[in-house]
Design goal:
The protein is built from nine helices and no strands. The protein is mostly helical. Helices cover about 50% and strands about 0% of the residues. The chain has a domain at about 50-195. Helix 3 (about 70-80) packs across helix 8 and helix 8 (about 155-175) crosses helix 9 (about 185-205). Bound molecules: zinc ion (ZN). Zinc ion binds near residues 102, 106 and 117. Zinc ion binds near residues 100, 102, 106, 112 and 117.
Length: about 230
């Protein structure tokens, strides 16, 4: 009822409803396109965060994990699907192909790199994880949820380190700094997590004093006050 209706002789005009003034600006156009793209990708990827509430919930889940901050940030980047895999680089027009550098018939998605490529399937199938039923998940977040539901807390934290280190090793390999596969990634990650936990433990313990701070009078007569 409060909307004013134009008079009989009012002419129609175009309104750009993405800005508060109704006027077109490049800035408001950019934001509209970005919002549309984020929303579309969320719908396509199925498991990607489709609302800020869901995104906040995921961030809180990752940030509470007792692992080094750089690993948490890596997990968040993987969940946000912004790791520079060939699929992502191809989508941005940077890479000529979306396929894996090591498996020519597979697309290089985040899940492919961290779950299957370069012996990773064997890593998840074997002790200590013993997860032979890992399938290709629709998103990395789904994969993380699967790991959380199927591993006890300590093993789940180890799995997050393995995931982070796998990506690190892959980058080193691509730059010619690493010749080995992922065989030693679990033992390396175990030692890394152990030293991280030890550092946390020692940081929370009160400092031990090298000598007693309580004073008692000397029994030596040379030091008597009188
Ligand atoms: Zn591969």
């Amino acid at each position: 009822m409060a909307v004013p209706i134009g008079g009989m002789f009012a002419t129609d005009k175009l309104i750009w409803h993405f800005s508060s003034t109704g006027q077109f600006t490049a800035k408001s156009c950019y934001h509209a396109l970005l919002t549309h793209r984020t929303f579309s990708r969320g719908m396509e990827s199925g498991g990607a965060a489709s609302s800020s509430g869901e995104s906040t919930r995921r961030w809180k889940f990752i940030w509470k994990l007792s692992i080094p901050p750089k690993v948490r940030i890596f997990l968040w980047r993987a969940c946000s699907d912004i790791l520079p895999t060939n699929v992502e680089l191809f989508r941005r027009g940077i890479s000529p192909s979306p396929f894996c550098r090591y498996c020519p018939d597979k697309c290089e998605t985040t899940q492919h790199v961290l779950q299957f490529c370069h012996g990773m399937q064997a890593v998840w199938n074997s002790p200590p994880f013993n997860l032979p039923n890992m399938v290709t998940f629709p998103s990395f977040w789904s994969c993380l949820v699967y790991l959380r539901e199927n591993l006890e807390q300590g093993l789940f934290l180890l799995a997050t380190i393995v995931i982070w280190k796998t990506w690190d090793l892959r980058n080193r390999r691509l730059h010619g700094n690493e010749q080995n596969g992922n065989q030693g990634v679990v033992s390396w990650s175990g030692a890394f997590l152990h030293s991280f936990n030890s550092a946390i433990m020692s940081a929370h313990q009160p400092p031990t004093r090298a000598f007693s701070t309580t004073w008692s009078p000397s029994s030596d007569p040379r030091y008597c006050q009188d």
